[in-house]
Design brief:
With 83 residues, the chain is mainly α. It contains four helices and no strands.
Amino acid sequence: MTALEKSIYSEITEKLKDAPKNVLERVLGYVDGILENKSDKNSASLKMLVNEDYADYKSGKTSILSIEEAEKDIENFISENEN
């Protein structure tokens, strides 16, 4: 693991250390979706969705989705963007 990768890993770990289980499940769903679909275009779009969802969660604008909803959203996104 490079120094940059270690830094990113540490930052993610720090941000998630006190997160509730349903947030961790949602993040895991996003990670799985990203790893399954490695195209740069779709990865960038998924990253943007994660950032938007996290910002909405932190601001209290939205409630947390269940892991099933997150997985469904990721599957829908991937199937809509496969070419």
